[in-house]
Amino acid sequence: MKTEENRKVIKLDSKLSDKEKIALEEKYDIEFTNDIDSNGIYVINITEDSDMTSFEEELNANVETDVPIKMFADSVDWGVARIGADKVWDKGTGSGVKIGIIDTGIQKDHPDLAGNIITGYDFVNNDNDANDDNGHGTHVAGIAAASSNNLGVVGVSHSSQLMPIKVLNAQGYGYLSDVAKGVYFATDNGVRVINLSLGSTSDSSLLRDAVNYATNKGVLIIAAAGNDGGAPCSYPAAYSNAVCVVATDSRNLLASFSNIGGELAAPGVYNYSTYIGSTYRYLSGTSMATPHVSGAAALLMSICTTCSSSEIRTLMRDTAVDLGEMGKDILFGYGLIDLTTAVASLQPTPVEETPTEETPTEEQPVTEPTPTKTPKNTKTTLPQIIMILEPVISKGKKYIPTTSSDIDVKYSLSPILDENNVDKIRIYLDNKEIGSSIEQSGIFVVPKDLLNHSQHWVKVVATFKNKTESSAQLLIDMTYLRTNTKTSGKSVLGISFSIFDWLKIF
Question: Is 147 labeled as catalytic in the residue annotation?
């Protein structure tokens, strides 16, 4: 809400009658509103001709502007939280990275988006006012980069700039040529990420050439798999130069409507985001999954400013949570996007000291060793390695909890020596130290409160008095702990309708 300077408020010690109000209105050219007057608080509208000085003097009261207020709260949608975005905003928020939203446009004055929108283009009406008159593009934009402004929702990469490129009209209709033009326009105007929550079941040399042009210029193309329930990735998502995104639900299962064969998975069911009319709405579709990945890519680019788009793509693959069969699979690709692990992998490892040799001193001159025979009862120092004995892990070094509780990490050195050569044994959770010990064997407790996203790396590091070290690690995979999401009383509008025979928005 904008401040209306002509709307004023006054507090009086006594109640005004209707007759007194009319007299004051005529005398000072003001108008009392229909708001209920409570405890002597009255709201009035004034004009340029209102004599407010005399009005205040007569009533012996101070007149103030009745400024609007709002709740100081941003809603983090379950999808944004599921990929760990809210856990890494202290490391990066997408600042300095442009995201091209090629869609139905974006509501340019939406209070949650206006601060991040830059000039784009409307290929439907051939002007630079790419305002949304459908709603789909505004919803997609909010997931990717709605502002953190204590209002509404927060996007994955909430400081990124949003370039609206309108290629579909109010009814969702458009032309292939406009989509291709949009890709060229975004590329030539400095975007690093292009979001395409639309597609076709048929290949097109025109669209393929546009995608190749963008990727050759260092742009990362993120595209929706499609909502045809088990069909392969649609185009342009099917191109090797594009990242095909499939949709998952709150239980990390593949959404029933989602196509398969993608590269990455992201939340795409019942996502709450911005909508036209300065409102918010729940929508479902691979259209909603795609901007989670677009926002994630932009956020990572803002942290690793020297990383290329292909390096960011590889990073997202390598740190994704493996949801299906081990490795890349037909349903989830490389897995669910996981910003917490991706960002952690960009941070320096806390314990990586290179062993150094001791430098001889004058008090300890270097001499050739004299060969001696080792007595039978003399103990020799053996190399020790650290092992994680519990919890029991799978072949992929994963531990999959079945209940939400603290996790005991049992460790032991091998072999256990009578003489303790340990300097310290530390446990790290996502590269952050959470405990230490000097015992050669023991148990570290990982509190359940710290297990707040889909995937966590546990590393146990033993450092020895001779400056060497040994480490062991495992992955705690939380994705199989299903959560119950209450959705009663709210409607879900999933957008997936034909544009022409070839084009859909997902």
Answer: no
Average pLDDT, whole number, for the chain? 85
Q: Name which of 379, 377, 309, 299 is nearest 340 in CA terms.
A: 299
Token code pair at residue 467? 């400056």
- Complete DSSP assignment for 387-406: EEEES---TTSEE--SSSS-
Is there a catalytic annotation at residue 287? yes
Residue 222 belongs to a domain: yes
Tokens read off for 314: 């590889």
**Which of these is catalytic: 157, 159, 284, 287?**
287
What are the tokens at 323? Answer: 């949801």
Same domain, 125 and 200: yes
**How does DSSP classify residue 472?**
E
Q: What is the tally of structural domains in the chain?
A: 3
Catalytic, out of 110, 136, 158, 292: 136
Interstrand relation of 193-196 and 98-103 (parallel, antiparallel or unpaired): parallel
- Find the helix or strand (DSSP H, E) in which 195 lies: strand 193-196
Residue among 41, 35, 47, 36 nearest 6 (CA): 47
Q: Which residue, chain included where needed, has tokens 């993120």?
A: 222
Report residue 225: phi and psi, to 5°: -70, -35
Which residue range forms the structural domain that includes residue 234?
A: 78-336+494-505
Length of the chain: 506
Claim to verify: residue 207 and residue 246 sit in the same structural domain: yes
Looking at the whole model, is its pTM more than 0.85? Answer: no
Terminal-to-terminal C-alpha distance of the chain? 32
Interval 384-433: pLDDT, tens: 899 999 998 765 557 888 888 999 999 999 988 888 889 999 999 877 89
**Helix, strand and coil percent figures for the chain, each rounded to 5:** 20, 30, 50
pLDDT 10s digits, 156-178: 999 999 999 999 889 877 778 88
Residue tagged active-site, from 66, 77, 103, 178 = 103
CA atoms within 13 A on the CB side of 233: 29
With a CB cutoff of 8 Å and minimum separation 6, the contacts of 271 are: 77, 78, 79, 139, 143, 282, 283, 284, 288
Q: Are 104 and 172 within one domain?
A: yes
In eight-state DSSP terms, residue 86 is: G
Contact 183, 214 (CB under 8 A): yes
Residue 114: how many other CB atoms lie within 10 Å: 15
Q: Which of 334, 475, 453, 449 is nearest to 88 (CA)?
A: 453
